[in-house]
Amino acid sequence: MDPHYDAQDVARCDLCEIAIVQSYCDFCHVNLCKPCIGEHISDDYTKHIIVPFQLRRSTPIYPKCKTHKKRACEYQCEDCNIFLCTDCLASKPHNKEHKLSKLEEVFCQKKDQIHRDKKELKEELLPVYEEIATEIKKQISNLDVDYKKFTTEMSKHREELHREIDNVMDQREKEIDRNKLKHLSILTKHLEEIKQLQSLMQESLHTLNEMDESNEVTPTIHYSSKNQEFSKLPPKVIVSMPKFIPKPKEKEELCSLIGKLTPLSTTLEERVFTAKKPNTSVRELLDEPEVLNTIKTRHENLRSVTCLNEEEIWTSGKTTADIKCFNTQGVLQKITKTKSGEWPRGIAVYSDGALVYSDGWIRRVYKVKNDQTEEIIRLQGWRPFKLCVSSSGDLLVTMVSDDETQSKVVRYSGSTVKQTIQFDDDGQPLYSGNAYSKYITENRNLDICVADYEAGAVVVVNQAGKLRFRYTGPPSSTKNKPFKPWGITTDSQSRILTSDYYNHCIHVLDVHGQFLCYIDNCDLEGPTGLCVDNDDSLFVCEGYKGNVKRIRYLK
């Protein structure tokens, strides 16, 4: 039996390899049909442990006694830490002061502890670590914003210091201008005095020229020389230029003026793990699911539905760019249109209520919040299709290559690629390559579930992208059309629900891919997209009717 298909394959007898298995040898670990039981135990019927197939691996496999090779040990000496069979105790009694324990009791106690530890690890410890990791990722994503604020504050302080320096320097420049004017005034006054003396000397020279040419005796006799007076030169005016004496630049003073940074500090705050109280609220499936109400969306070709609460149920179709939001009473709340005007290939909702949709025509994904549309993903060579917001806030996107030969699932944190899921451990594609519908969802155990329409399978991988199982329909089916899954969703019990378009029903699987039942008595017609709200109400799109049916299927 192929382990990749064990969720739906019929188990066969390991001996004849033809008949359906009915029993199991818990000693040899082989599947058996009734006719082959006799052949199997013919060598030594006393050692074989034949149980119904449903109870396989339920019988403990005790260790063989090292002394009595044909005996299985049934006791453990806690002091010696060795296993003993009954022959060991009969032939050579063990130290009576040592404490003996029955292996069956020890085995059962340890099994109980293993189950408890497994449940605690899976349901309590791992989610806590996931929360811690999410918290750290959020801090990392906020670093750029926080440090941007920091540098902005520094820049403001820089500008303030520059303004103060500019003001002081402006004052000094004004002082220089005042000194320059005063300097100019002194020199100008001195120049005027020199010019006056020059003028007097010119007059005296003119008079001397006239007298030198004249023969009159009287003026010549009365001439008195003024050269002695002019030879007394005016004093030299020396005006000292003002000097700028910059203050010595002391690094410490400058740093003190600017301010300082406190050092980066790291402290460890103790985390205390508090175990959650056991969750006993297991919700069982109803024998007869019922339709609670029907929302008429008026989409001609309804494809997707997603919701967070009863007041915002988002829907989209194949023939319109409108993404319509209704409440559970079917009242239209608002309409968002795609940027390109083409129909959205997939829609999903973040925990804060923001809508996200994919536009395969222009290879982009947009986020809409408070009526503001933001492009968060732009692709080349690939077209985005169906979307899912994970429990950690990441966005899971199914996408197909432009040539429709490859498909993959990509996990985004914001606009950053965190993970790509495309191939199994053997290098084979996990998903069909064409552009047919590939709805996606995340289970409570963090499995990623894809309804691959063309492959006729639900493909489930774990958080690391490793294949867990493929579901291709129940072992025996009363439906006469091929299984072609469309929409897919999961509930609070980690059950997987997928719509069977041509058989007009919903398949309900357990977390391991085992078929549980159909939801097929709600007059469904061509179910496509699915989603489940916080109260485990199931919303089902009816493609060509354009209706969303709200169905109660759990007790």
Plain-language structure description:
With 555 residues, this protein is an alpha+beta fold. The protein has 3 domains: 1-59, no CATH class; 75-139, no CATH class; 286-554, 6 Propeller (Neuraminidase). Helix content is 26%, strand content 30%. The protein contains 6 helices and 30 strands. It is elongated and about 175 Å long.
Write a brief caption for the model.
This protein has 555 residues and is of the alpha+beta class. The chain has six helices and 30 strands.
User: What count of domains describes the coordinates?
Assistant: 3
- Assign the CATH superfamily of the largest domain: TolB, C-terminal domain
Largest beta-sheet details: 4 strands, antiparallel
Determine the N-to-C terminus distance.
Answer: 35 Å
Helical residues, percent: 25-40%
Topology (elements, then pairings):
Blueprint: E1 23-25, E2 30-32, H1 34-41, E3 50-52, E4 75-77, E5 82-84, H2 86-91, E6 100-102, H3 103-213, H4 217-221, H5 227-230, H6 251-258, E7 285-296, E8 302-309, E9 312-317, E10 322-326, E11 332-337, E12 346-349, E13 355-359, E14 364-369, E15 372-378, E16 382-389, E17 395-401, E18 407-413, E19 416-421, E20 438-442, E21 448-452, E22 457-461, E23 467-471, E24 485-490, E25 496-500, E26 505-509, E27 515-519, E28 527-532, E29 538-542, E30 547-554
Labels describing this entry:
555 residues; alpha+beta; 4-stranded antiparallel beta sheet; 6 helices
